[in-house]
Backbone:
């Protein structure tokens, strides 16, 4: 149960006001850090991607190049720390520490939803990480409903205020439907993507939040000029479940019913590839093997949030760095074992797809 249950709120509290949003951000951090918030049955299906072992790779580890072009810069490895939070004091500390880690390792970093900044500009400091991470690929974040309600100029200011290299526009109807006071009108989103792709000065990334991207959605986004999608598929953290843990009894029951809702991460990457989209693979990505499997399916970058949050909470910066280094070394090892000198060769590496993923992808 949340440390700040909705049942503890006063009737007058606006869940989308400054206090309500701040409370929600703190709840999200605490629940993800210590509660069971992952899918219980459904998996990412990345385990259904079987890379062929090469006993004679004719390759040395120091020949392997993990560098990856991304949003106009070059990552040292195809890895991103996903956007988690913002808008609260604890969020500021997490963002600064994880951005600093991204700077040290040369990987990408995303902030959580900047919606709180739209309500209270003084909360910018909880997202401002450039002072500790001047060189990273930094991803901004706003919900599609809020983006639809904003002018392009307002969103450009949101991006510029934190020095973001791209803007993630997140699509989270399932989460919102369980969230108390969540959005209920999702009309106009595709037109908003068209407008932002045309008018915003930085790339736009269509981002799901744990329920994955269907082939129909991927095709619709591509038709509106979107080039990048963060699939955030089923199999990792379920934000339906997170909101269920926070909700009053009625909505909690619906959240429990829909706990397993979503499209697995591996299938979402395949759907993005078929639609001609470049993809970030997130949602239950936990190690270097997962990143390698996702790249083989067509993803450009692997991304994760929960493992970094928990490593940081339990073991500090050293623990978070150790986790990142294990992921990178795991990826390098898989590349050696498949005879892949770089991501392009890994994408072409011989592999087999298991029946569960084949069933999803047709």
Residues:
């Amino acid at each position: 149960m949340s440390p700040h249950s909705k049942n503890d709120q006063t009737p007058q509290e606006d869940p989308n006001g400054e206090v309500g949003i701040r409370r929600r951000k703190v709840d999200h951090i605490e629940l993800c850090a210590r509660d069971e918030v992952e899918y219980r049955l459904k998996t990412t299906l990345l385990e259904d991607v079987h890379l062929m072992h090469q006993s004679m790779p004719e390759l040395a580890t120091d020949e392997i190049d993990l560098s990856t072009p991304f949003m106009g810069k070059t990552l040292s490895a195809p890895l991103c720390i996903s956007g988690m939070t913002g808008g609260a004091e604890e969020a500021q500390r997490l963002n600064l520490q994880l951005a600093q880690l991204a700077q040290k390792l040369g990987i990408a970093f995303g902030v959580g939803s900047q919606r709180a900044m739209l309500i209270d500009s003084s909360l910018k400091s909880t997202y401002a990480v450039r002072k500790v991470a001047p060189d990273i690929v930094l991803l901004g974040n706003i919900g599609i409903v809020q983006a639809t309600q904003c002018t392009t100029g307002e969103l450009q200011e949101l991006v510029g205020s934190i020095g973001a290299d791209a803007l993630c526009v997140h699509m989270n109807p399932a989460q919102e439907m369980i969230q108390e006071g969540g959005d209920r009108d999702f009309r106009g989103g595709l037109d908003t993507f068209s407008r932002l792709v045309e008018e915003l000065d930085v790339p736009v990334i269509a981002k799901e939040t744990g329920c994955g991207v269907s082939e129909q959605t991927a095709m619709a986004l591509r038709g509106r000029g979107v080039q990048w999608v963060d699939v955030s598929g089923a199999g990792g953290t379920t934000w339906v479940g997170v909101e269920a843990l926070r909700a009053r009894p009625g909505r909690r029951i619906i959240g429990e019913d829909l706990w397993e809702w979503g499209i697995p991460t591996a299938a979402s990457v395949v759907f993005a590839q078929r639609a001609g989209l470049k993809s970030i693979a997130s949602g239950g990505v936990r190690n270097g093997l997962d990143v390698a499997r996702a790249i083989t399916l067509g993803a450009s970058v692997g991304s994760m949030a929960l493992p970094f949050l928990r490593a940081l909470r339990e073991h500090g910066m050293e623990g978070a760095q150790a986790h990142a280094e294990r992921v990178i070394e795991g990826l390098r090892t898989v590349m050696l074992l498949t005879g892949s000198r770089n991501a392009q060769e890994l994408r072409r590496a011989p592999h087999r797809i298991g029946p569960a993923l084949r069933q999803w992808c047709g």
User: Anything to note?
Assistant: The longest strand covers residues 138-143. The two ends are 39 Å apart (CA to CA). The CA atoms of residues 68 and 74 lie 5 Å apart. The chain has 15 helices and twelve strands.
